[in-house]
Design goal:
The chain is mainly alpha-helical. It contains 5 helices and no strands. It has a single domain, classed as Nickel-containing superoxide dismutase (Four Helix Bundle (Hemerythrin (Met), subunit A)), CATH 1.20.120.400. α2 runs antiparallel to α3 and α2 packs antiparallel against α5.
């Protein structure tokens, strides 16, 4: 019985290590944050979504088993990257980084950040629902708008 319990414990630990949930930043007040990295991650997700949409449209026109297989994989990839973007907004920015202000200007900035963050989440949701490249472009625009609201400056990212 002890061997089975130990095996289950080890298997559970290993599955937790492989879990995508662990890719999110911790929810303890560690004070270690990488805002720029999170924006770059969301933009990388958006680029993957854009490419996936293109591949889905191309593969949908084909009628062979390999194309059907790849089509399913691209849909899954597109949705996973959209979900990741939503998780970064919700689990990193909204729960840990965006704080309400104490004065009128701080409260206004808070509302502006929340509104922009919500727009990213909605644009990511729209990318799950469609294969329209314009929706992927709208996601990119909403991420950049959120950056402007959050950082208070124009974004500059390395390509």
């Amino acid at each position: 019985m002890k061997r089975i319990t130990l095996s289950l414990a080890i298997a559970s630990f290993v599955s937790l290590l492989a879990s995508p949930v662990l890719l999110a930043h911790c929810e303890v007040p560690c004070g270690i944050y990488g805002d720029q990295r999170r924006f770059e991650e969301m933009l990388e997700d958006q680029a993957t979504i854009f490419k996936a949409m293109d591949q889905i449209v191309e593969l949908a026109a084909k009628d062979d088993a390999l194309s059907h297989n790849q089509l399913a994989r691209w849909v899954s990839t597109k949705d996973a990257h959209a979900t990741n973007t939503q998780h970064v907004i919700a689990q990193y920015f909204m729960t840990q980084r965006i704080k309400p202000g104490t004065d009128a200007a701080g409260r206004a900035a808070y509302v502006q950040k929340l509104t922009a963050a919500h727009a990213v989440m909605r644009a990511a949701m729209k990318c799950k629902q469609t294969v329209d490249p314009e929706d992927a472009k709208a996601l990119q625009a909403s991420i950049l708008d959120f950056y402007r609201a959050y950082e208070g400056k124009e974004p500059h990212f390395h390509e």
